[in-house]
């Protein structure tokens, strides 16, 4: 008799667990994620429109030291800008040997240094895939509010939190 009770307890726990798991998708229907708007997580959404890439060839201001510059021109839809293990289209204009001729900004000298600090003749393999750090821009509304304040502005603030020189 005690053996049957002992065997019945794990079966009851498993049944309770399965019943709880079966209810999870129904409960998830009402869960909402701020990035998705009012659409519940379990529901399909209409994807947002893809904004056209800016093509202004204007250098953008950087927000902090060491921030990779953004790409100020389109890079999609042409073989010229493809990057794979055998080819990097960016180097056809931005390599230090071609930049002056192409009137492009040369790649930073830091891209010609390997992880051991040795100077290389070609771009370091760890810097070969430009779009790991550099991205084109689109004139799109931000998905979340940006409250970023750069270090120069932080240093100019008074201890009361107000900026110096502003009312």
TrEMBL record:
Leader sequence residues: 1-28
- Alphabetically ordered keywords of this record: Electron transport, Heme, Iron, Metal-binding, Periplasm, Signal, Transport
Q: Which residues bind heme c 1?
A: 73, 90, 93-94
Q: What GO cellular component term, any one, is given?
A: periplasmic space
Query: What are the subcellular locations of this protein?
Result: Periplasm
Q: Which GO terms describe its molecular function?
A: metal ion binding
Name this polypeptide is given: Periplasmic nitrate reductase, electron transfer subunit
From what organism does this protein derive?
Ralstonia pickettii (Burkholderia pickettii)
User: What gene, per UniProt, encodes this protein?
Assistant: napB
